[in-house]
């Protein structure tokens, strides 16, 4: 079992911790930049949600396919994308994975690592992910597609079309809902007739699993089980990771609509701390120092990189 | 299916006379035999063979995994095709009616058209969306439209509008081999039309090459789809009256072979565009503009359009016909334009 204690598990936990804490430093560095320097786009912070993103992606194999959601960098970094092109995309630099078309929360991608991107129209990845899984089924390549989305996107009709067809065809796809309780200004509880997104899964003939999104390893284990099921040809699973939106919809959002305590710097049930508990202090401090340095160096390199030439406007329209 | 051998001067090969539907079916079958990555999905395309019979026999030959019946879910059919293309397959999907591109609009205009661009050119999306298009007789306002101009307006999509069985086959094969997404507008009113089609498996019609359907010296008529035959019929009526019409079928609107059209206008000095789609902001407006930009001083008369009405299409078959250009209207307009 994946949750057996042992050296492999300990190594996995440390690796998840390393990635989560790296993304935490990245979140803080980006926030600092947005606050001090301004920004040519919108940054949708994922602080506090790094654990579930990294935990889930750590259950994927290298050649599994990923459609990430818009809140943070945890997904892509956990899939193996280096920080510098991610920061480059955020800052609209030629060194970004989109070679300078970025700016803000963007469409970073890495074909070699099967990071397939994201749709700017939320919920469009449902149908695309099901289609990617249909291709894997046809080719028999044994790959599983993982699709992240928020509680807000769970309202899209594309969910219905994708979930129904994926379940009927038993496609190898895993849907992971990051339920942080807020779709911009809309409370999930006001937009859902059921308490959980996962409650909808049985209608599609698929398992619906609820997991504590602040517990990275619990999300890892739930995802691993769903991926195994998908790879066995038993079809999709809907995982709902319960989490919290710590910041605004975008950095700078004053959140006048928010009547729960705005969380600010306090991250209840912080995934970084939870993961760190089982790691000896000296080891953890070493990981932290290395992660901080890695983030600073990558951010500085991205800042120093040139902005894209206008010629990129006309590139990549056609193959 | 009965086939009649005929010989064409253009290919030198033995052609057969087959229907537009059969030509499309052959293109699909041949490309699926050629490349195992090619597969299809859509509503009723498998067990039934398509509501218009276009995919008949394909599920039997290629199996239910490569010819997949879906639920009524256009966002999945198109969005799923986009996702399947990212994983290394070549999906050829059918929307039962071209009008349904509006029900899959996000998937067509955002995902297919922009995914490659947004993600820095890391992916290709070799997807063909087959779109039974146009007036067919009482199908109603939501099952009869000609929407190729809308497809033309959003960068990132190639647009084919075959008017003959030969082009239907050759353009579809080109579309399937193209690395970019293609919206393939098949005219429903042409499905039963027969014509010579080369026997060869390699009958591929390149995109961006217009066909001069009839050579003439007095007036250039650009027409697509069902309107090509009507323009040709009009030309035959006008010839005895001393008006020699050149009919050009662009065959693809993206890319558009404007060079062939401009060269023709430079000889005939008159241009008329005929399309079934609504008049306002149709592709006729675009062609008229491009021609006046490049050949204004070659024109002896204004560029005219003969088009579908700026109305929804009524369901009644007679009223519906009154909403799209007839041969008589093309004749009358051409005669008036030639007299200017």
Describe the overall structure.
The complex is a heterodimer of chains A (319) and B (340). Chain A has 319 residues and is an alpha/beta fold. Chain A has one domain (7-306): Rossmann fold. In chain A, 41% of the residues lie in helices and 11% in strands. Chain A contains 10 helices and 8 strands. In chain A, the strands form 2 sheets. In chain A, strands 2-1-3-4-8-7 form a 6-stranded parallel beta sheet, with helices on both faces. A two-stranded antiparallel sheet of chain A has the order 5-6. In chain A, α1 (7-37) packs across α10 (281-304), α2 runs parallel beside α8 and α4 packs across α10. Chain A is globular, with a radius of gyration of 19 Å. The termini of chain A are far apart. The mean pLDDT of chain A is 94. Chain B is of the alpha/beta class and 340 residues long. Chain B folds into 2 domains: 4-198, Thiamin diphosphate (ThDP)-binding fold, Pyr/PP domains (Rossmann fold), CATH 3.40.50.970; 211-339, Rossmann fold. Chain B is 36% helix and 21% strand. Chain B has 11 helices and 15 strands. Chain B has helices spanning 20-34, 58-62, 74-86, 105-118, 148-153, 165-177, 226-238, 258-268, 283-295, 317-321, 327-339, and strands at residues 4-7, 14-19, 38-42, 67-69, 90-94, 128-133, 158-160, 182-187, 194-198, 211-214, 219-223, 245-249, 252-254, 271-278, 304-308. The longest helix of chain B has 15 residues, at 20-34. Chain B is globular and about 60 Å long. At the A-B interface, α5 and α6 of A face α3 and α4 of B. Chain B: Its cofactor is thiamine diphosphate. Chain B: Keywords: Oxidoreductase, Thiamine pyrophosphate.
Strand content of chain B: 15-25%
Counting DSSP E segments of at least 2 residues, the number of strands of chain A comes to 8
Mean pLDDT of chain B: 95
- The DSSP helix count of chain B reads 11
- Give me the oligomer status: heterodimer
| CATH class placement of the largest domain in chain B | Alpha Beta
Query: CA-to-CA gap between the ends of chain A?
Result: 45 Å
Count of DSSP strands of chain B: 15
Given helix and strand content, the structural type of chain A is alpha/beta
CATH architecture of chain A: 3-Layer(aba) Sandwich
Mean pLDDT of chain A: 94
Tally the structural domains of chain A. Answer: 1
- The low-confidence parts of chain A are none
InterPro entries (chain A): DH_E1, PDH_E1_Alpha_Subunit, THDP-binding
Cofactor (chain A): thiamine diphosphate
Protein name (chain A): Thiamine pyrophosphate-dependent dehydrogenase E1 component subunit alpha
Keywords (chain A): Oxidoreductase, Thiamine pyrophosphate
């Amino acid at each position: 079992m994946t949750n057996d204690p042992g050296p492999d598990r300990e190594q996995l936990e440390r690796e998840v911790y390393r990635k989560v804490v790296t993304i935490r430093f990245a979140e803080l560095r980006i926030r600092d930049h947005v606050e001090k320097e301004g920004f040519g786009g919108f940054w949708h912070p994922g602080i506090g949600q790094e654990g579930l993103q990294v935990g889930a992606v750590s259950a994927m194999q290298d050649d599994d396919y990923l459609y990430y959601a818009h809140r943070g960098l945890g997904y892509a970094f956990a899939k193996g994308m280096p920080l510098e092109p991610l920061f480059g995309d955020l800052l609209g630099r030629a060194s970004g994975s989109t070679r300078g078309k970025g700016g803000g929360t963007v469409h970073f991608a890495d074909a070699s690592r099967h990071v397939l991107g994201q749709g700017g129209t939320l919920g469009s990845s449902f149908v695309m992910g099901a289609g990617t899984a249909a291709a894997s089924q046809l080719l028999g390549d044994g790959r599983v597609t993982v699709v992240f989305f928020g509680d807000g996107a769970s309202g899209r009709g594309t969910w219905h079309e994708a979930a129904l067809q994926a379940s009927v065809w038993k496609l190898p796809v895993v849907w992971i809902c990051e339920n942080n309780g807020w779709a911009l200004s809309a409370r999930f509880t006001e937009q859902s007739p059921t308490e959980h997104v996962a409650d909808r899964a049985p209608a599609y003939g698929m398992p619906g699993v609820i997991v504590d999104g602040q517990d990275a390893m619990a999300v890892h284990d739930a995802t691993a089980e769903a991926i195994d099921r998908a790879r066995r040809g038993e079809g999709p699973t809907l995982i709902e990771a319960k989490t919290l939106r710590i910041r605004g919809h975008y950095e700078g959002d004053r959140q006048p609509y928010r009547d729960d305590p705005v969380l600010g710097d306090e991250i209840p049930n912080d995934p970084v701390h939870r993961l760190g508990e089982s790691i000896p202090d000296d080891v953890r401090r070493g990981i932290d120092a290395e992660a901080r340095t890695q983030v600073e160096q990558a951010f500085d390199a991205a800042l120093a990189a040139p902005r894209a030439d206008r010629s990129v406007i006309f590139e990549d329209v056609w193959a | 299916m009965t086939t009649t051998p005929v010989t064409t001067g253009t290919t030198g090969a033995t052609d057969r006379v087959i229907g537009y539907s059969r030509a499309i079916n052959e293109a699909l079958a041949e490309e699926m035999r050629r490349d195992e990555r090619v597969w299809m999905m859509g509503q009723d395309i498998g067990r039934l063979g398509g509501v218009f019979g276009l995919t008949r026999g394909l599920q039997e030959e290629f199996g239910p995994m490569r010819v997949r019946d879906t639920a009524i879910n256009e966002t999945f059919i198109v969005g799923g095709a986009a996702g399947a293309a990212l994983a290394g397959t070549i999906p050829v999907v059918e929307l039962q009616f071209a009008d349904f591109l509006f029900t899959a609009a996000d998937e067509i205009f955002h995902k297919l058209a922009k995914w490659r661009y947004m993600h820095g050119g890391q992916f290709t999306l070799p997807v063909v969306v087959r779109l039974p298009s146009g007036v067919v007789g009482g199908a109603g306002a939501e099952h009869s439209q000609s929407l190729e101009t809308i497809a033309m307006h959003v960068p990132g999509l190639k647009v084919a509008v075959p008017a003959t069985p030969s082009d239907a086959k050759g353009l579809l094969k080109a579309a399937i081999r193209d690395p970019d997404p293609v919206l393939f507008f098949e005219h429903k009113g042409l499905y039963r039309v027969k014509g010579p089609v080369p026997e060869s498996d390699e009958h591929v019609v390149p995109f961006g090459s217009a066909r001069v359907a009839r050579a003439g010296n007095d007036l250039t008529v650009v027409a697509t789809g069902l309107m090509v035959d009507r323009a040709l019929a009009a030309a035959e009526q006008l010839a005895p009256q001393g008006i020699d019409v050149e009919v050009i079928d662009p065959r693809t609107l993206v890319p558009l072979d404007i060079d062939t059209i401009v060269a023709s206008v430079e000889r005939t000095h008159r241009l008329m565009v005929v399309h079934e789609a609504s008049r306002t902001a149709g592709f006729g407006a675009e062609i008229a503009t491009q021609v006046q930009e490049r050949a204004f001083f070659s024109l002896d008369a204004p560029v005219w359009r003969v088009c579908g009405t700026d109305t929804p299409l009524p369901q009644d078959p007679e009223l519906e016909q009154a909403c799209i250009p007839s041969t008589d209207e093309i004749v009358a307009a051409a005669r008036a334009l030639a007299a200017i």
